[in-house]
Amino acid sequence: MQHLDLQVIEQALTWSRNGETVWLCTVLATFGSSPRGPGSWLAARSDGRHVGSLSGGCVEENFLERLQDGQFEDRIQIVRYGDAQDGPQDSRITLPCGGILKVLIERLPANSTTLDQLEIMQSTLRGQRHLLRCVNLSSGEARFEVDDGLGPRVVELTEREIVQLRIGPAARLIIAGMSPVSVACAEFARTLGFEVVLCDPREEVFEGVELPGIEVKPILPSLFISAGGCHAATAVVALTHDPRIDDLAMMEAVCTSAFYIGVMGSLQTSKLRAERLRRIGGLSDEQIARLHMPIGLSLGSKTPAEIALAVMADIIRVQRGRSRDAL
């Protein structure tokens, strides 16, 4: 599934290869309400053609008009939209609930440096590694550093005039086993932008079930995981209460770089599962400690949708590098 980040960078790369200067806009921060979060991209040409988005439309319209008027010829600029004091003097630029949008605008000429940058970003988005793109706000120069992919998408190091932008493959959710909770979790995850893969060898459990946008694989989830289904942006959840599916999935998942591994069950069930995984699966205490069990945030969830909400909320928490104590 091609997510929006990859579409933006691939189009920017195509334009650059064709000799076009590209303006790459990145949302650095939002204050108040905003339709798009930090790290969101928009790429544009001087004629106004563009891909991606920064807001609900008003910011893009203003930026593209100003771009075609030749107002963004500097190598690098920061613009605050929705700011009555420092933002563009345009009455149309108002964000919901009085929000403010801080945008980094980079002019990338069609040269070998730009091509190298965009090709590295493309391969990172397509692959299984994470990088930090570190942009110098004075010179506009950018370099890459290895990253674990966890934490906020944008980090501003004001004292060093550096902004760090996280880049990585599309977040993936592997759901081990079909259940009502699995269906609700898959739908939540798809809405959140995850690539969702649901694995269950029991083909009959999918009869009469429609899962648009979800990749369904009628195999043991442990087989899919062991065949390379996980990367560092992958979360693995087991949601069946069937140890033949759940335990095997956990045994394989702890051998991968998945950032979140969780399995559904009560405290007592989780205790028994941990003992079983040590005894039968040979898992170490360190591997057991990687498992989120019981899975999800403690919200008092009862229904499948409520349990799925708790699961996805916990996955997002870990993905963003937040501790439970910080909630």
Automatic annotation (TrEMBL):
Pfam families for this protein: XdhC_C (PF13478), XdhC_CoxI (PF02625)
Domain XdhC Rossmann: residue ranges: 173-315
Residue ranges of domain XdhC- CoxI in the record: 15-82
Name this polypeptide is given: Xanthine dehydrogenase accessory factor
